[in-house]
Amino acid sequence: MPITILQPSLAPPPKPRHEDSHSDSEGGADLEGDIAMGRPAKRARTQDSSIMTPGEIITDDPQWMRGHGTYVIPGASSNTILSSVAGTLAKTNKLLSVRPLRARYTPEIGDLVVGRIVEVQAKRWRVDVGGTLLAQLPLSAINLPGGIQRRRTETDELQIRTFFSEGELLVAEVQQLYNDGAAVLHTRSLKYGKLRNGVFMSVTGTGGGGGGGVVRARRQAFTLDISGTDEVSGSEKIDVVLGVNGYIWISKHIEGEGAAAETSGPGITRIEESVGLNVYSSQNDIIPVDTMREIARVRGVITALVENGLRVDEEMVIKGYQEAVEMAKEERDSADTLWLGGERGKRLTKALVGR
Amino acid sequence: MPLDTSTYNLALLRVDGRRWNELRQQGNTKIQCIITGPNERDASKNTSSSASTAPTAGGAGATLAVSIMIAPFATVDRKRRGRNDKRVQEMQTTIACGLAAAVQGQAYGPRSTIHIALNVLSQDGSLLAGLINAASLALVDAGVPMTDYLVACTAGSTSSYAAADEAADPLLDLNTQEEQELPFLTLATLGATDKVVAMVCESRVQLTRLEGMMATAADGCKAARDFLDGVVRDKGELMVQEGAIGRGEVVSSMDLD
């Protein structure tokens, strides 16, 4: 394969930050108090900037209430509210909170998450969902193969690794939250369960914190039709699961399976027939090379979205994928049309935002 | 013994605005800080078994685990330091305890740990101060709630006892050469306040000099805080401009009616 060497793009010129105050050869400080050390004119910037930083006073008006990302000095009689994270201010009626620029995922009930099993215990699994604490998935919160409805017995406990074992990926919903913020998951739906036939990727998903990445949306999982690209033979589809926690799963679509399966499918009464015995299979199906390539393309699109600071949701991924296919058609003769980093990623996102 | 190499100006601190791993330069000291977590991993199980830990919020919050790695190529004499170097361990403990005072760990719960891995790539004085500042900036960038930036600075004294030179200037932010010749201390304060969180002084110094050195170092801390604050603000404004996050609202008394 020929190697292309790309011209490195110039870094943007650094902004002049300090008026040159470092040349004061007179000396840094003296005890009498007059200090010349590049401090003045610094406070003025808080006025025009909407960014809050730790330790910054937001307000001392007693009418406001403090929310997330803020604190009051304990023991002090004043009502001064200070920021504890770097971010932007948000007001909800009288509640002041600071949305951090970047933060770890904080689970909320109803979130669709992709997780990885890190530990198997007697009656539950411990799942890494990218949060501050591991989430747990009780044995009673999964569907048994064949959709049998019954109590979980000791036999099931002994066979717990046949359902999920360490390192396996799953898609689940947050069912419950503990006081310390730890989540309890469930997979009691045909939409949830073990993941296979695809590729995992992790992006900055803050789940509402702000700062790009996966955002909470109406639909977190969807099916992408790749038969539109004339390189693909037959009608293949790709499932994309955008976990709110920033974990993403892109896989081959199998009819009647996967998180993107329509809810209009079989009802709870017919669950027995529809839940196959292979839902806990760890064996991949045979995936056509074309499908594999398109999965890689979707992955490239999402990486490009994140690198260029755009949000990742259904609309952006579908649009971005279409754009990437167009780009690939234009450059049919070039060796590698899958790679969407650097200049190509910038072009892609420019085309997306320009629309 | 006045040093002709002495310079008073606060070192030009530079920050490469990267995520999770921040590069920071204080003098010619280069430090890379990588924050992992907060997540629920046992601190002792991790590879950094020599990390120093400190619980935040009186044991009710997340634990901080600090580990320092000094690269062999960081110093001129290319000396390899063992993992259990007592000086490194003391610095780890100082940083862990100091940051524990600033981090509001109760948001995460006592079972989670924040791992702070500090890599010294180039060492030219003010090592402890640089480490503290780098860790502080990385924590803010990672979105960990803190009461304020924990900032540190060094200060030294040029006056010797024999000279009895009362008017001699204290020095701010020493480099290696100065550190080897002059008495100095490292002072860490909570933001722009004069609340001293940590103070380390390993050399013999005249008691009358101490106050001046501390005042100088505290002023250096304020300047360092402003610098770190500026970096964070610039990055935040960039993110707002790019549309990655929504524009913030402004509190004004006009809203209240």
UniProtKB/TrEMBL annotation, chain A:
It is found in: Nucleus. Residues 16-25 have a biased composition (Basic and acidic residues). Its main location: nucleus. Residues 104-176 form the RRP4 S1 domain. Transmembrane segments: none annotated. Residues 1-57 are annotated as: Disordered. This is Exosome complex component rrp4. It comes from Apiospora phragmitis.
Automatic annotation (TrEMBL), chain B:
Residues 45-57 have a biased composition (Low complexity). Keywords: Membrane, Transmembrane, Transmembrane helix. The chain crosses the membrane at residues 57-76. SUPFAM superfamilies: Ribonuclease PH domain 2-like, Ribosomal protein S5 domain 2-like. Residues 37-57 are annotated as: Disordered. Residues 25-145, 152-219 form the Exoribonuclease phosphorolytic domain. InterPro entries: ExoRNase_PH_dom1, ExoRNase_PH_dom2, ExoRNase_PH_dom2_sf, PNPase/RNase_PH_dom_sf, Ribosomal_Su5_D2-typ_SF, RNase_PH. Gene3D superfamilies: GHMP Kinase, N-terminal domain (3.30.230.70). The keyword Membrane applies. Belongs to the RNase PH family. PANTHER family: EXOSOME COMPLEX COMPONENT, EXOSOME COMPLEX COMPONENT RRP41. This is Uncharacterized protein. It comes from Apiospora phragmitis.
